[in-house]
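Standup notes
- DV: blocked on the single-chain target, sequence here:
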Amino acid sequence: MVSWSALGRSLGVNLIKTNTKIPLVGQNVKFSVGKSLFGDHGHKTMAMQPSRWQWHKFKDMLHLYFMVGLIPVGAIIFYTNVFIGPAQLTPIPSDYTPKHWEYHRHPITRFIACYVHNSPQQEYEKFLHFIDEEAQKMKLRQLEKEVVSKMAERQDYQAYYYRPMINKYLRVNKQTGDEMLNRLGDDYEE
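- DV (later): unblocked, structure below
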């Protein structure tokens, strides 16, 4: 593929050299296209030309991806259409249940239905699962609304997120209070 571009470049340059002898001028730079050099006399100059690297790289990549992608896919499509062909409709035996991909006529469509896409039954069950999840979320939201309304109705400050106090600290606090009561006595007046 790279050699094709190089071959085209060399042929294109040769064609330009033989057919045109007119120098090109662009932005105050003189481009010499068909200038021939004379032996070893005088200055040897190289003609300044704008870079064509990007164009050659594009052509090389185009040839590569054409060869890698389009030709094999075209060969597979040609083979399936010529040698395999579309499916023929035949009666189904009574003891056989066809698979979901066997209902398609073209072999490539059958391949895609078998190996790429999910079966219609699986898609249906995924949709039912989604509906069930949404129904459960709806029930939970309704229950949360009821809890909030009951708390507002009864003016109950101990909400569903209330965490009771740990008993260890309650016992320590009670013990400290009892010790202070024993030390100070019971006859405290305000």
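- Follow-up: The CA atoms of residues 101 and 114 lie 5 Å apart.
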